Amino acid sequence: MTDQTTPEIELSEAQASEFWTGKRKQRFWRSIQAILIVLAAFVMLVPIIWIFLASFKSHVEVYQLRLFFTPTLENYGTVFEEPYNLGAKLYNSTIVAFVTVAFAIPIATMAAYSFSRFRLKFETTILVVILATQFVPAVVIILPFFIMFRDLGLLDTRIGLIMVNLAIVMPFAIWMIKGFIDGIPMDTEEAAMVDGSSRLQVIKNIVLPMAAPGLVTASIFCFILAWNEFLFALFLTNRDAVTLPIGLALFRGEEGDLWNLLSAAGIIIMAPMFVLALAIRKYFVQGMTMGAVR
Amino acid sequence: MSHIPPMPTMRDRTLKYLLVLPAVLVVFATAVWPLIESLRFSFYQGRTDRGDFPQNWLGFENYTWAFLYEPPFWNSVYVTGLYTVVTVVLTTAFALGLAMLLAPGGKLRSGVQTLLILPFAMSPALIGVSFRFMFNPEFGLFDAFFGVVFPPLADVSWLANPDLAFAVIVMADVWGWIPFLTLVLIGGLASVPQDTIEAAQVDGASGWRVFKDVTLPQLLPVLAVVIILKAIFSLKTFDQVFMLTNGGPGTATQTLSHYIYITSTRYGQVGYAASVAWLMVIPMMVLTYFYAKFVFKKDDGA
Predict the structure, then answer these.
(1) Higher confidence at residue B117 or residue B174?
(2) What predicted TM-score, i.e. pTM, was given to this entire model?
(3) Which of A210, B217, B230, B241 sits at 20 to 30 Å (Cα–Cα) from B265?
(4) What is chain A's mean pLDDT, rounded?
(5) How many beta-carbon pairs below 8 A join chains A and B?
């Protein structure tokens, strides 16, 4: 295919590059690329930086388009006071995300080990169903839970929220951990079993220690998902169990949005997630695509 | 399916199912059951202001109602469809460009790659909030920027104009998803054999031809995964819309998820909402089918 078209291209290339001889052309493109990269990074960061700056602005200054201002920490105090009481939301978010992960990871690890090491009946079907549940719209899942929790008195409770959050976290946890266990060679396991260890001993003494970094990564990934979860909490909570993302709505006062407070709350929500995400950045893509891309 | 052949041990026969059981139960209870229950609801009159739930059996009446008598339903189908197409195209195009720029590596490039993780760790609700901030008519940074670059936009109130509000939710989504898709595509580009590219270059092929004839065909499977994944998430979009425009002005940015939210919470029509929700599940299943095909094709090939 290329053989036929090559001569033509050579000709047109030669004509086109008459002016841009080798090095000059290369240098030109390199600087264009560098400019584009910096520009892209800038666009990516601007909204985040802007919120960061606004969180240190006073009530007056936030309503002006200014880069220079006298920074204040006041907003970070105000959001924790009445009527905003962000501390309660922070507590809810932390508990809900933490307990969700604490349930999901051990259950997912057991399943992932089995999927990775054994051949099960309907294995593909089960894995596809688990994968597919991730794509079910959250609104579909929440309707029956909304009715059920209403009847059981579980609306606006952290327990209810934890139960539905498992729906979001489990498929990712299973697929992610399965990926990690797939990557652990089996020789050590086999050797230990020849030496008389039981399967459970092998899992406990060999697989878990080796999979530990992967388990931590999966836990962090799931924690971020649960922390950022919005729709379930919006349906299920209204006062006692409100989480941080829902808490943002508090700052839409009668006189409009209180941007300085919104920004401070925003930073409180995203800063810990930035730290966590950076810690596991190499696995983020793998986690999200559940093994479709490697 | 897995890469490693299974170890034949008799005792494992029950153990392997016991290990999977809790996970299967949890997935069933938190995802499969609600899916089926929603389907059941969709055939009933299910109002939340009554004591019992659901009430009368309606058959397909909820569905017919949506199709025949509910212009807001069709509006949200239209909004969601347009939104999906536009965001998938824009995000993929920008992400591909950025991935090409960043793929070669080096200090600047890997630094920027690291930064790309940040927007993705941001809750979509927060992205919605930040874009409402950026497009505030009086002190929004993007609002001011567009006003300078394109003066006719200087005095408009973005979120009060139906078309511009739609543009803003698209921008917020594209902004939030470019980083992730870029990272996936960088991974894809890394697997394109370098010698093929070099061979083409030696043959004298221009940069564009190398991209079109060598890189792109190799990248196609990854690109397909990216597009399917993005389409699924676009179809489901709710968080940003809720925080950014709350479906407005009017219903100009009301996606299907938002429509379901409003009908079920504000109007208490859970049965009807469930029928609309199930209409949303169907395209999702089609997309998931293709996605799963890619996942398992990869697995078999390895």
Answers:
(1) B174
(2) 0.89
(3) B230
(4) 86
(5) 329
Using 50, 70 and 90 to split pLDDT, how confident is the model at A256? confident
Compute CA distances B291 → A150, B31, B35, B120, B221, whole Å.
Answer: 35, 18, 20, 21, 11
Contact criterion met (CB < 8 Å) for B35 and A293? no
Hey, are the CB atoms on A170 and B98 less than 8 Å from each other? no
Give pLDDT tens digits for B5-35.
445 555 678 888 999 999 999 999 999 999 9
> Please, which residues 146-205 of chain A have a Cβ atom closer than 8 Å to chain B?
146-147, 150-151, 163-164, 166-167, 170-171, 174, 182, 186, 189-190, 193, 198-200
ipTM: 0.89
Nearest to A46 among B26, B141, B287 (CB): B141
Mean pLDDT, residues A247-265: 84
Q: What is the DSSP string of chain B?
A: --SSPPP--STHHHHHHHHHHHHHHHHIIIIIHHHHHHHHHTTB--BTTSSSSS-SB-TTHHHHHHHHH-HHHHHHHHHHHHHHHHHHHHHHHHHHHHHHHHTT-SHHHHHHHHHTHHHHHS-HHHHHHHHHHHT-TTT-HHHHHHHHHSGGGTT--GGGSHHHHHHHHHHHHHHHHHHHHHHHHHHHHHTS-HHHHHHHHHTT--HHHHIIIIIHHHHHHHHHHHHHHHHHHHHH--HHHHHHTTT-STTTT--HHHHHHIIIIIS-BHHHHHHHHHHHHHHHHHHHHHHHHHHHHHHHH-
Contact B183 A231 (CB under 8 A): no
Query: Among candidates B141, B156, B293, B49, which has minimal Cα distance to A64?
Result: B141
Interface of B with A in 260-299 (CB under 8 A): 260-261, 264-265, 270, 273-274, 277-278, 280-281, 284-285, 287-288, 291-292, 294-296, 298-299
pLDDT computed for residue B2 by the predictor? 45
Contact list, B121 vs chain A (CB under 8 Å): 224, 228, 270, 273-274, 276-277
Listed by start position, the domains of chain A span 2-54, 77-289
pLDDT at A233: 95
Percent of all residues in chain B with a pLDDT value above 90, rounded to a whole number: 47
Q: Using the 8-state DSSP alphabet, how is residue A257 labeled?
A: E
Break chain B into its structural domains and give their ranges. Answer: 70-301
Q: Please give the residue of chain B at the shortest CA–CA distance from A203.
A: B19
**Alpha carbon of B77: minimum distance to chain A alpha carbons (Å):** 15
Instruction: Tell me which CATH code domain A77-289 carries.
Output: 1.10.3720.10
> pLDDT at residue A294 above 70?
no
- pLDDT exceeds 80 at position B171: yes
Verify whether the Cβ–Cβ distance B112 to A40 is below 8 Å: yes
User: CATH fold of B70-301, please?
Assistant: MetI-like fold (1.10.3720)
> What is the distance between the alpha carbons of residues B283 and B33, in angstroms, rounded to a whole number?
19
The predicted structure's pLDDT at residue A2: 42
Q: Do A227 and B123 touch (CB under 8 A)?
A: yes
Instruction: Report the C-alpha gap between B234 and B227 in whole angstroms.
Output: 10
